[in-house]
Amino acid sequence: MKATSITVAFVLAMSSFLISTNAHAHPHGWIDLSVRVITDDQGLVSSLHQTWRMDPFYSLVVFEELQQAEGASLEEGLDQLGKEIRDNLATQHYLTEVRINNEPQALGEVSEYTAMERDGRLIFMFILPLKTPQPLTVSLLSYQVFDPTYYIEVVHEEEDGQPRDDALIYNGEPACELAILPADPDPEVVMQAALLDKDESGEPGLGRYFAETGQIDCR
């Protein structure tokens, strides 16, 4: 299977036995995101627990292909799919950038993950560790999750047009202010994205301009 980008391949299940190339010829899809920031026993931020809810069309296609695969149950197919998603995301830094006081943070390797079906949607959950746990005292943690090519849009879970309260969770100390900031791309960048054909991806880096920013402000 020849994909326009590795991220397209991952959402479309990343292997020829799961999906055909014809599925690329349709409009961009999306992922509904929620994040829980995890602290360790010392109160340091250690990881981001991410839940990705794939859009209904992608989910339907993936489930149909999994059910048609011979010699494997749906549960076994989802287990293999989860591993493939993890392995492909690892080459793209899990589509995640984390900063503390505007300093980029190195990320570790994902070892805890799962793929499942829930209410007809494909769900991928994983724990993304920071390479080095960090304190948040008098600090600002921010993150973005995005497909660099903007073939897939990633948005936090919404309700009535606003991010849900559980789209970003942090229960650590100290008490901090949580916010999900909308993207504010330059009009020229918006035009660039609008001119993409339905089976095209943008130049690497385009997705950054359309990414929401999650913030935990402990300053």
TrEMBL record:
Keywords: Signal. It comes from the Bacteria. InterPro entries: DUF1007. Residues 1-25 form the signal peptide. The keyword Signal applies. This is DUF1007 domain-containing protein. It comes from Vreelandella sulfidaeris.
